[in-house]
Amino acid sequence: MKIVIIGNGPAAISAAETLRAQDQGCEIVMLSQEKVPFYSPCPLAEYVEGSVCRERLFLRDADFYARNAINIRYGSPVRRIEPSARRVWSGDEAVAYDRLLIASGSRAFVPPIPGLAGARGVFELKTLDDAEAILRRLAFARRAVVVGSGFIGLEATQALVRRGLEVTLLEAREHVLPAMLDSEMAALVERRLVEHGVRVRTGCAVERILEGADGVRAVIADGDEIPCELLVCAAGVRADLSILEGSGIASERGILVDAWMRTNVEHIFAAGDVIERPDAPEKNRVAPNWPNAVSSGRIAAYNMLGIDRRHPGLEAVNVVRVFDMPIASFGVQTGETCLRWQDGAGAVRKVLLESGRVAGGQLIGEINGAGVLHEMMKKGTAVERFGTHLVHPGFGYIHTMEPLRAVKWA
Fold it and tell me: Which pLDDT tens digit goes with each residue over 103-157?
């Protein structure tokens, strides 16, 4: 059997390793848009700030592919999928497959702001190439603007501050981390940013980018001109669906897959940041994160080989660290009941309940147990018996199994 994998990220690698562990004889061809071995994009901001060296980004060495009999083709972006002929097109080359896995990941979203796309000195922070381009720009940049305050935007802001730049953070919505936090919790994060010299402007729409002889020179936002020599566009990511045109593969925000990672087209599977699947009966969602990529890649591999495995559902816990302050969130931002804990030193935890069950959580400063709370939300566990102990940072799996009288709370 010949299996073609589009991508070289965590979903692709997880699938390839599972395939090889289960079947020593299948042919694996991996088509990678990038030109380097598998690396983690998670510490790219730390690479920019200088706290992580380039070598530590790579999670597999260059010989990994040969050792596992994986035919890796670097710099081979796929342009088109032709299911009727069971082949994909990479440039002018047609690559045949018996099973196809689309693990092409996500791409940075660039808003249609005049002057933004293509301006020198304007970057995303999604790939290693992006990070290295930013590092080159640091040779003469002294002021930076970051557009967007999601986790990539905040990580980029922190990196540039630690590189000694004056940084302005622009967010079109009313507070930072709008997808993760409510306004009260976001205010704690904004205060942390300001304490480290960041100029934060929320509810601030970017109108256009001004370019000079050396590239970007200013941003016009709400009528104000903000000088800068470097701009990071962190306006979010989107599933990369560019190769689907004409393929018949169903998609909405992502490629639609079932619990076996099958698309609607026979012999074609998808995994990782590019997928959309039900993780609750009433809705579909895209949840681009590392654990989902690894688990969905593994499940896809089993099912491509005819080994029945179901995916348990996407994880949707978001975690970021802002100037050493950890933040985690999941689920809804409002609920029937809000349990609250704080230590008086800046740490605040909220757990939202609906009908006696966990519906969401926001944790700042103390994020221990976020995974436990999220798992209880996924399972629909009745939590009323735990009372306010549920929101305490010491709450963990053991407390779901032992009588509360046996638990000591610090």
Answer: 999 988 999 999 998 899 999 999 999 999 999 999 999 999 999 999 999 999 9
Coil, helix or strand for 172? coil
CA–CA distance from 30 to each of 156, 352, 386 (Å)?
30, 43, 49
Sequence-distant (6+) residues with CB within 8 A of 324 are none
Say yes or no to pLDDT of 187 above 70.
Answer: yes
Among the residue ranges 4-18, 25-39, 222-236, 316-330, the one predicted with the least confidence is 316-330
Classify residue 382 by its DSSP letter.
B
Is the CA virtual torsion 238, 15, 319, 408 positive or negative?
Answer: positive
- How many Cα atoms sit within 13 Å of 279 on the Cβ side? 20
- Distance (Å, whole) CA 3 – CA 192: 48
Q: Which of 68, 55, 73 is nearest to 8 (CA)?
A: 73
Query: Is the model's pLDDT at 205 over the cut of 70?
Result: yes
In this predicted structure, what is the pLDDT of residue 345?
A: 86
One-letter amino acid for residue 258 of the chain: D
Q: What is the largest CA-CA distance in the chain?
A: 70
Residues 232-255: pLDDT tens digits?
999 988 988 989 999 999 999 899
Given strand 224-227, what is the order of strands in its sheet?
206-212, 215-221, 224-227
Neighbours of 43 (CB within 10 A): 17
Query: DSSP alpha helices (H): ranges in 7-69?
Result: 10-22, 44-49, 64-67
pLDDT of residue 400: 65
DSSP secondary structure, 363-378, as one string: EES--TTHHHHHHHHH
Answer yes or no: are the C-beta atoms of 307 and 280 closer than 8 Å. Answer: no
CA distance 183 to 74: 44
Select the more confidently predicted residue: 405 or 127. 127
Contact call for residues 359 and 335 (beta carbons, < 8 A): yes
Q: Please give the structure tokens belonging to residue 406.
A: 């046996």
Q: CA 405, 406, 410: angle at the middle one, nearest 5? A: 95
Instruction: Give the CA distances from residue 55 to residues 46, 47, 61, 148, 160, in Å, rounded to whole numbers and listed in that order.
Output: 13, 10, 10, 29, 21
Query: Tokens 């402007």 label which residue?
Result: 201
